[in-house]
Write a sequence for this structure.
């Protein structure tokens, strides 16, 4: 198998460079078309995310001697399609071939090569990239590389195994996710609780999505501008009813909240101790969790002095995140072991497939020879030639044709002095070795 991956990611290139080599949907279609037209590959998958751009190519006709030239052609194509100097591209590109390329793909899909170790989103992005390529080749009525398809399917099952057998994705390693994880630790279930989110930026959006995925039924969003809060609600696309409040009406929302998660850009404290004290009175002093992930802080630190109030800041969450990162590091070692096993299993399948094809072609060649000579023999018989003579000639020519290639191979080994290869070859053909005869 000749597999090649060219890539740029957050480790090798700045955002400005990564932007230059990103593939839009239209550019990806053009790229797949060019790869096919230029015979760069028999199958290609293009992965393009905010943190990486990778092109996976497979071409079974490329010999080991041609790999370097093929790689250079692929690099030139990559630079040309993005209209950037080849030198600039080569300075920040990484290249893997065959086993290393397969191993890299599996590591990427399992989140081991991500900015956030073990992040799950990348697997969906890899699946989508593969699906786009499959759809393109199907639309073009072109066969998609069986080997590349099998590799990606193997990668998906490997990622599933890693998620099942390790804790790589269980620990929170982002502030938004850590805040939700903390809430789930303190309260047995979030489904029957009322949760107030203060702010409407990217972090609160991530928090909202995490909460909704965990079945939260009562969600409120308070923001300086109602329009932005309403826009966020529309973005979430959920059947859960979400109430929106302005900051002027924050106290009313606070009075209903079991959990408050706040992340705004306000330079001043928004939730004071007195506000929480009043809310607790209205709530009959039920447990209340306040998580402040804003810098500067949104919540008065004195709220933690109140009974039944649990208060955490972004620094507390960073401690949780670091512990979880350490756990993920341990899980990543397990994941690397699984990937090594699955990668070896894939190449074992590939080896069997390649040898099966070799046998298939060898048998097909033999059948072609047989049919050709049989046709000629039947012609002679139809013309009334002597049956015994025709059969003698047929069998003689068939023997010569079938042993021609093995005989040439043995002669080449003899000339090269390859005694070990000759011995192995003769054993395979169940022949007596010349040295054995000499000793008898």
């Amino acid at each position: 198998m000749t597999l090649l991956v060219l890539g740029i990611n957050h480790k090798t290139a700045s955002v400005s460079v990564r932007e230059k080599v990103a593939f839009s949907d239209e550019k990806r279609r053009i790229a797949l078309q060019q790869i096919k037209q230029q015979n760069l590959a028999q199958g290609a998958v293009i992965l393009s995310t905010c943190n990486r751009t990778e092109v996976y190519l497979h071409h079974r006709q490329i010999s080991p001697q041609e790999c370097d030239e093929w790689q250079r052609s692929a690099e030139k194509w990559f630079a040309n399609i993005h209209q950037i100097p080849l030198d600039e591209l080569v300075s920040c590109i990484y290249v893997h071939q065959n086993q290393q390329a397969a191993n890299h793909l599996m590591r990427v899909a399992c989140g081991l090569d991500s900015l956030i170790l073990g992040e799950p989103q990348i697997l969906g992005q890899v699946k989508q990239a593969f699906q786009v390529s499959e759809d393109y080749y199907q639309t073009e009525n072109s066969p998609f590389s069986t080997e590349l398809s099998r590799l990606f399917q193997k990668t998906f099952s490997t990622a599933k195994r890693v998620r099942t057998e390790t804790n790589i994705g269980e620990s929170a390693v982002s502030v938004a996710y850590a805040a939700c994880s903390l809430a789930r630790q303190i309260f047995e279930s979030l489904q029957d609780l009322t949760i107030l989110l203060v702010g409407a930026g990217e972090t609160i959006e991530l928090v909202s999505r995490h909460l909704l995925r965990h079945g939260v039924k009562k969600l409120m969003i308070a923001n300086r501008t109602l329009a932005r809060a309403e826009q966020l609600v529309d973005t979430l696309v959920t059947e859960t009813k979400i109430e929106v409040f302005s900051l002027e009406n924050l106290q009313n929302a606070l009075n209903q909240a079991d959990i408050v998660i706040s992340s705004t850009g306000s330079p001043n404290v928004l939730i004071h101790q007195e506000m929480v004290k009043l809310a607790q009175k209205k709530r009959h002093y039920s447990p209340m969790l306040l998580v402040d992930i804003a810098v500067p802080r949104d919540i008065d630190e004195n709220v933690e002095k109140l009974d039944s109030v649990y208060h955490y800041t972004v620094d507390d969450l960073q401690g949780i995140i670091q512990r979880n990162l350490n756990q993920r590091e341990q899980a990543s070692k397990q994941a690397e072991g699984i990937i090594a096993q699955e990668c070896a299993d894939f190449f074992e399948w590939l080896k069997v497939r390649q040898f099966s094809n070799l046998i298939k072609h060898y048998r097909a060649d033999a059948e072609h020879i047989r049919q050709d000579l049989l046709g000629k023999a039947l012609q002679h018989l139809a013309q009334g030639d002597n049956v015994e003579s025709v059969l003698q000639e047929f069998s003689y020519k068939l023997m010569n044709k079938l042993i021609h290639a093995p005989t040439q191979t043995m002669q080449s080994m003899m000339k090269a002095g390859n005694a070990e290869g000759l011995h192995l070859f003769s054993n395979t053909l169940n022949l007596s070795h010349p040295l054995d005869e000499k000793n008898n």
In short: The first helix runs from residue 15 to 20. The radius of gyration is 33 Å. The chain has a mean pLDDT of 90.
